[in-house]
Specification:
The chain is mostly helical. The protein is built from 14 helices and two strands; from the N terminus they run αββααααααααααααα. The protein has one domain. It is globular.
């Protein structure tokens, strides 16, 4: 598959999502799919949801139009999982949903792809591999859901991660995985134009759950061939390092403060960065830069000796650990909503 075909997949998906989003916004307003300001959220005005529909539709149309990837092993299972999470997200966006039911939907979506043979291969142990695969898919799916707390954050991170997955898999001649990555990147980018820096629509759970799920599955589909197995495992962990970092930070801090990890709140890494003096626009750009840094590290791991790969991975871990320690010291009770602004 030539590079121009990858660009074509990316561009078509982005165009579909971009053109479809205003239409979806009108539907959201008519059906009253609207996210109203709350104490645990930072937006100041009621904003339509359902942006996830444009992302999912752009992804599905673009994937099904590519004969080269329609027959790719695990693709049908992925699309079934996408459908499950889209329905779960739409229900949650409209009327809310207990965390246990939401988790059940994520488990079913993960089970579909794992049963199809898409899973991590860990220490030649089937059962351990399956358990790790469940944890990975459900964890990354939730991490993108949690990251959807500031304009452009979740969608932008998805674009960056997908582009790195696409580039790395293309260099390794995994063209179907690369095409899937560029398609989901384009789908998220087309929506992002309507969501950042100012948002006239949110993606909602129907979008954030699907983005996390697709990227988690792509990470398992790819063969991130390096010199040794543990540096191969490092590649997707680095590419999706920021979602992992944010979820870990929030979970650890809430457990430390004896609060439920499932509750909403303004205590995410993005909120903490804003409290350090960054405007929300610059906060998102800073997170983008961190994601690019981690993506470059992941690419370098695939092209260097395993010892160098370990050093690169260790350096990335220390940087994120230092950032996590600094952000953990921020008093999030000071985060207030700015009336009429989201910048």
């Amino acid at each position: 598959m030539k590079p121009i075909q990858m660009f074509e997949s990316f561009f078509v998906a982005a165009l579909i999502a971009y053109l479809m989003t205003p239409f979806v916004r009108m539907i959201a307003l008519k059906l009253n799919y609207v996210d109203h300001p709350k104490d645990n959220k930072i937006h100041a005005h009621p904003t339509p949801l359902l942006g996830g529909i444009s992302i999912v539709m752009a992804f599905l149309i673009s994937v099904l139009a590519k004969d080269q990837i329609v027959a790719f092993p695990g693709l049908k299972a992925m699309l079934i999982g996408v459908s499950i999470l889209l329905i779960i997200g739409l229900i949650d966006d409209k009327m809310g949903m207990m965390p246990s039911f939401k988790l059940l939907g994520q488990f079913l979506a993960a089970m579909v792809v794992i049963k199809s043979g898409v899973r991590v291969e860990f220490a030649n142990n089937y059962y351990l591999s399956v358990v790790i695969s469940y944890i990975w898919i459900i964890g990354i799916t939730n991490s993108f859901n949690l990251l959807d707390n500031m304009n452009g954050l979740s969608a932008g991170i998805a674009v960056i991660a997908a582009l790195f997955f696409g580039f790395i898999s293309y260099v390794n001649a995994q063209y179907a995985v690369s095409a899937l990555s560029f398609i989901i990147a384009g789908s998220a980018l087309g929506f992002l134009k309507h969501n950042f820096p100012k948002a006239n629509i949110f993606m909602g759970d129907s979008g954030s759950l699907v983005l996390g799920y697709v990227l988690a599955t792509i990470a398992l589909m790819g063969k991130w061939n390096t010199y040794v197995w543990f540096t191969s495992l490092m590649v997707p962990v680095l590419v999706l390092g920021y979602p992992i970092f944010d979820t870990t930070l929030v979970s650890v801090m809430r457990i430390w403060e004896r609060r439920s990890i499932f509750q909403g709140g303004k205590d995410h890494s993005s909120h903490r960065l804003a409290l350090l003096g960054f405007k929300r626009f610059r906060t998102v750009l800073l997170v983008y830069a961190i994601c690019v840094f981690l993506g470059i590290e992941a690419f370098l791991v695939t092209k260097t000796h395993w010892t160098t790969g370990l050093i690169l991975g260790g350096a990335a871990f220390l940087v994120m650990l230092a950032l996590g320690i600094r952000l953990s010291l921020v008093n999030t009770t000071r985060f207030g909503r700015k009336k009429g602004r989201d910048d």
